[in-house]
Amino acid sequence: TFYLPPEEWREPYALEGQEARHLVKVLRARAGDLIRLLDGRGREGTFRITATEKQRVALTLEVLVEHPAPSGSTVLALGWAKSVRRGWLLEKAVELEAGGVWLWQADRSQSHVPEDIKESWEGQMIAGAKQSVNPWLPELRTIPEGVEGLVALAPEFDRTLILWEGQSPSALLSPAMLGGNGRTLFVVGPEGGFSDREVRVLTEGGFTPVSLGRRILRWETAALLCLGLDWWHREL
Ligand code: SAM
Q1: What is the mean pLDDT of each run of 10 residues along the chain (236 residues)?
Q2: Cα of 222 to ligand 1 centre, how many Å?
Q3: Where are the domains of the chain?
Q4: Which value, in Å, is the radius of gyration of the alpha carbons in the chain?
Q5: Of 9, 150, 168, 224, which one's alpha carbon is 20 to 30 angstroms from that of 30?
Q6: Is the ipTM of this complex over 0.85?
Q7: Which residue's CA is the nearest one to ligand 1's atom 9?
Q8: Which amino acids bring their CB within 6 angstroms of ligand 1?
């Protein structure tokens, strides 16, 4: 499975650069072979290779499937923290069909959330889409206004939940809060956790604090656990 950006999805179809090199050099594709392409916006095409060069593979479209956008969707809002695992988490979020991954500026973020996240992280999301053959890439955006920005966006959602390590373990994330066709926003804190102010602003803004149990999980464990549970409930 390969990725062709939506703006390049037109005749004459061709894969160029790294994708073309990988196809020709590593996978030894030849004229006549069939390959699958995704555009990250719902299109999945079966293409026949008509010619191969080192940096360019010419293609003709054989079958096009346009997948509708998922009806319910889940957004993961992660407190910004510099982390080597961020790209890894984005890849997993695509595999688990997140509708969006937002990076919000937290009181305990050690630096400002960067502006050019798309360029830095899109490659990893495309890897997740190719791996899982997911035709929809999640929306990747930053919320530099922090929790106030999240509260302003809350009306777009049917459920807004804070995964808060300070919540009593008995207030566990429950099946009733997961799945269905509604839109869910999960807010995960940065490595240092939420400040008291952030928890106050979010709860006053109608968000519900929930626990993931008595252990303190790393942010990426917490994020993947809620995405995985939510995915499972949607599929049931
Ligand atoms: N403030 C904590 C500390 O330093 O002791 C750690 C924060 S934790 C590493 C990062 C984020 O993961 C939290 O802000 C929260 O969103 C989520 N998280 C971790 N464990 C959790 C739990 N048991 N229940 C709910 N959320 C949890």
Answers
A1: 93 92 90 96 96 92 93 89 84 94 94 83 90 94 96 96 95 90 93 96 98 95 94 88
A2: 7
A3: 2-66, 74-235
A4: 20
A5: 9
A6: yes
A7: 218
A8: 163-165, 188-189, 191-194, 211-213, 215-219, 222
Pick the CATH number of 2-66 from 3.90.550.10, 2.40.240.20, 3.30.950.10, 2.60.40.1930: 2.40.240.20
CB atoms closer than 10 angstroms to residue 69: 10
Closest residue to atom 12 of ligand 1, CA basis: 219
Q: Which atom of ligand 1 is nearest to the CA of 213?
A: 23
What would be the CATH architecture of the domain defined by 74-235? 3-Layer(aba) Sandwich (3.40)
**Amino acid at position 174, single letter:** S
